[in-house]
């Protein structure tokens, strides 16, 4: 699948909407705590990427365990769930308002979805 200029424009538009929602969730209610969601979603793909590079991509050894890849997926899943649970916890404790929580969660999911989509569209194919 070839990713072209239209894909880049669409992904940047969705990313801008995600950042706009998170920034507005902080600015409209004068509270900086929803901005922590951006940090969790920016850190979320890193363990998966690092553990994917550290694993042994050897085609001759199919029986090797994928423990490193599983650890990376677990840490990525932890960051994604933390990006959703953190605004819910803040709203439950009364630190942020419920509309700020909703905007923060939707914006964070848009940011993470854009990062994952960018990785899928612009993935290099390896030929041996």
Describe this structure in words.
There is one protein chain. With 128 residues, this protein is mainly alpha-helical. It has one domain. The chain has five helices and no strands. Helix 2 (36-43) packs antiparallel against helix 4, helix 3 runs antiparallel to helix 4 (67-93) and helix 4 runs antiparallel to helix 5. One of its GO terms (cellular component) is late endosome.
In short:
This protein has 128 residues and is mainly alpha-helical. It has helices at 5-27, 36-43, 45-54, 67-93, 98-121.
Present the secondary structure layout.
Layout: H1 5-27, H2 36-43, H3 45-54, H4 67-93, H5 98-121
Helix pairs in contact: 1-5, 2-4, 2-5, 3-4, 4-5
Mean of all residue-level pLDDT scores = 86
Compute the separation of the termini in Å.
Answer: 19 Å
Radius of gyration: 18 Å
Shape: flat
The structural domain count equals 1
Number of helical regions: 5
Question: What class do helices, strands and sheet pairing give?
Answer: mainly alpha
The share of residues in extended strands comes to under 5%
Give the low-pLDDT segments.
Answer: none
Percent in helix:
over 70%
H-E string? HHHHH
Profile the largest sheet. Answer: none
The total of beta strands comes to 0
Could you list some keywords that capture this structure?
128 residues; mainly alpha
């Amino acid at each position: 699948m070839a990713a072209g200029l239209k894909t880049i424009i669409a992904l940047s538009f969705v990313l801008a909407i995600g950042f706009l929602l998170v920034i507005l969730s902080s600015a409209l209610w004068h509270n900086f705590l929803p901005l922590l969601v951006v940090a969790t979603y920016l850190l979320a793909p890193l363990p998966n990427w690092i553990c994917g590079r550290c694993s042994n991509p050897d085609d001759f050894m199919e029986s090797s365990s994928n423990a490193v890849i599983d650890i990376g997926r677990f840490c990525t899943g932890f960051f994604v769930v933390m990006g959703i649970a953190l605004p819910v916890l803040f709203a439950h404790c009364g630190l942020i308002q419920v509309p700020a929580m909703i905007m923060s969660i939707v914006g964070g999911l848009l940011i993470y979805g854009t990062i994952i989509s960018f990785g899928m569209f612009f993935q290099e194919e390896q030929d041996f």
